[in-house]
Amino acid sequence: MAINMIMASSRALTTPCSSSLTPQRPTRAKLPLITLPKASLPKFPTTQKSLLPFISIAIASSLTMVPPSLAVEIEKAALFDFNLTLPIIVVEFLFLMFSLDKIYYTPLGNFMDERDAAIREKLNSVKDTSAEVKQLEDQAAAIMRAARAEIVSALNKMKKETQIEVEEKLSEGRKKIEAELQEALVNLEKQKEDTIKALDSQIAALSEDIVKKVLPIS
Amino acid sequence: MNVLSCSINTLKGLYDISGVEVGQHFYWQIGGFQVHGQVLITSWVVIAILLGSAAIAVRNPQTIPTSGQNFFEYVLEFIRDVSKTQIGEEYGPWVPFIGTMFLFIFVSNWSGALLPWKIIQLPHGELAAPTNDINTTVALALLTSVAYFYAGLIKKGLSYFGKYIQPTPILLPINILEDFTKPLSLSFRLFGNILADELVVVVLVSLVPSVVPIPVMFLGLFTSGIQALIFATLAAAYIGESMEGHH
């Protein structure tokens, strides 16, 4: 049915063209070779009328100069020549479709789908491990915090110990110094008393001397 | 009048110089039927290229893809993306169809532009892209039609045909007509683009043999890729359209 349509339309399409071309060819070859039984062709009276002067001119011009080569060269130009090629091409196409499906579309398509699925799975698993990584990071942060606190406490302890030690040593030194000072003061006092005593005993002799010198007794 | 005769003469001259072979076929006889040999030969080459490169690249898939596997993975992703945007969530079973449609048309078109087919002389006709022949494009378009009917019937059963009177029963003729215009437009778009592209390149090469045809060749490569994408996208869109619910 569709072929009939195509044939009819192709005929209708090409007849004006061939009628304008035929005068050039002495052999009166027609452009389309139509193998199907003749269908009743629609007539186009208006176009025929308008074509008439053109055809007459064409005939006149072609009669004056007929190329000898054309007569030999052109036989039948079968543009719309339907034959067994059509079903053979259909069979070839179906064969190509099934074999390409077997060696190309299905295997490669399945392979690509599987790869896509695998990649998606891997991506999802990576997303899961990111939570794990976060947990591990938190753990690490907690450990770091504990260690820092430990260090701080140890530092404080050491500071306290050293301070106590230093204070002990300081107080010890102070006590020693105080004791020495006391001793020195006691010594000084004693020496003072001694010198005062010594001076007392000498005062009498001195005063006698002074009296003797001042008051000449003799 | 002068202008017209001049243009006819120049056209004739072009035709003479370029030696363009349009609609010339290398016929084979198979059991009383005629076959276009050049189309079959090039399509076998295209199929061999596709199967061979795919088999080599996907032979031993690695988790970290190497260059060849990487390219084929990229192509598969692209095809899946096209199918998914057009068909929707149930695109899985249609990836082989859409992908093969795209790859076959794409490699065919590019082989016509890149492979030096013309070196191999045939007794008649010449080797070109397989999509250069109306048989190939119509075959692919009809496969697309069958595919979207199949998709709709599998998905919704006989209630699939309810879509013909969907907005209102008045649109029934237009809806039926669509089933014919879809393969028609698909096949003729591809056929016309590829044929026109090759013709333009051949004519330009025959007129100016150097430098000038190069941009047109690049344009042809671009068009070829776009046409392959359009064909595959439209096929997927038709399948998706027949699968989606009309409630």
Automatic annotation (TrEMBL), chain A:
Task: Show the stretches that span the lipid bilayer.
Answer: 51-72, 84-105
Q: Which residues form the signal peptide?
A: none
Q: Does the record's keyword annotation contain Membrane? A: yes
Q: Superkingdom of the source?
A: Eukaryota
Any single GO molecular-function term of the entry would be: proton-transporting ATPase activity, rotational mechanism
Membrane topology type: Single-pass membrane protein
**Which is an annotated Pfam family here?**
ATP-synt_B
Gene Ontology biological process terms from the UniProt entry: proton motive force-driven ATP synthesis
**Does the UniProt entry include the keyword Transmembrane helix?**
yes
Q: Matching CDD domains, A to Z?
A: ATP-synt_Fo_b (cd06503)
Provide the protein's localization.
Membrane
List the coiled-coil residues: 119-146, 174-209
GO CC annotation terms, alphabetical: proton-transporting ATP synthase complex
Write out the entry's keywords from A to Z.
CF(0), Coiled coil, Hydrogen ion transport, Ion transport, Membrane, Transmembrane, Transmembrane helix, Transport
Q: Which family does it belong to?
A: Belongs to the ATPase B chain family.
HAMAP family from the UniProt entry:
ATP_synth_b_bprime, ATP_synth_bprime
This protein's name? ATP synthase
Q: Which organism is it from?
A: Lithospermum erythrorhizon
TrEMBL record, chain B:
What SUPFAM superfamilies does this protein map onto? F1F0 ATP synthase subunit A
| One Gene Ontology term, aspect cellular component | proton-transporting ATP synthase complex
Q: Which GO terms describe its molecular function?
A: proton-transporting ATP synthase activity, rotational mechanism
Q: Which UniProt keywords apply?
A: ATP synthesis, CF(0), Chloroplast, Hydrogen ion transport, Ion transport, Membrane, Plastid, Thylakoid, Transmembrane, Transmembrane helix, Transport
Chief location category: membrane
Q: How does it sit in the membrane?
A: Multi-pass membrane protein
Q: Which domain of life is it from?
A: Eukaryota
Family of this protein? Belongs to the ATPase A chain family.
User: Could you tell me what this protein does?
Assistant: Key component of the proton channel; it plays a direct role in the translocation of protons across the membrane.
The protein's matches in PANTHER family, at most eight in alphabetical order, are given as: ATP SYNTHASE SUBUNIT A, CHLOROPLASTIC
Q: Which NCBIfam families match?
A: ATP_synt_6_or_A
Q: How does it assemble?
A: F-type ATPases have 2 components, CF(1) - the catalytic core - and CF(0) - the membrane proton channel. CF(1) has five subunits: alpha(3), beta(3), gamma(1), delta(1), epsilon(1). CF(0) has four main subunits: a, b, b' and c.
The protein depicted here goes by the name: ATP synthase subunit a, chloroplastic
What organism does the record attribute this protein to? Lithospermum erythrorhizon (Purple gromwell)
